[in-house]
Amino acid sequence: MGRRKSLRSQILIRHLPQEEADSNDESDSSDIDEEQTYGIWTEKPFQTEAGRSYYRKLQRDGIIYRLGDDITVNDGDSSFYVGVITELYDKAITKHSGEKYYEAIWYSRAVAKRMEIKPEYLLPDRHVNEVYLSCGRDENPTSSIIEHCNIYSKEEFFKRFPQGIPPKKKDDFARNFFVDRGVHLKFNKYTEPLNWSEYSHNLDKIEDLLVEMEETLRLPKKKTSSRGRGRGRPKKRSVSEDVEGDNDDYNLMKEEEIPSSDDASSVVSSSDEEYEVPRTPKRRIKRSRTTPSSAMSTPRRTGYKQPLQITPLPLRMLSMKEFQNSPHRKARAMLHVSAIPNTLQCRDNEFTTIFTNLESAIEEETGGCLYISGTPGTGKTATVHEVVWNLQEMAREGQLAEFTFCEINGMKVTNANQAYSSLWESLTGERVTPLHAMELLDNRFNHPSPNRCSCVVLMDELDQLVTNNQKVLYNFFNWPSLPHSRLIVIAVANTMDLPERILSNRISSRLGLSRVPFEPYTHNQLETIIASRLEEVKDEELFSSDAIRFAARKVAAVSGDARRALDICRRSSELAEGKNGKVTPILIHQAITEMTASPLQRVLRDLSFMQKVFLCAIVNRMRRSGFAESYVYEVVEEVDRLVKSMTSTDAAEFGQLIQRRPEFHYILSSLGETGVLYVENKSSRNARVRLAIADDEIKLAFSGDTELKGIA
Question: Are 628 and 463 in contact (CB under 8 A)?
Answer without folding.
Answer: yes
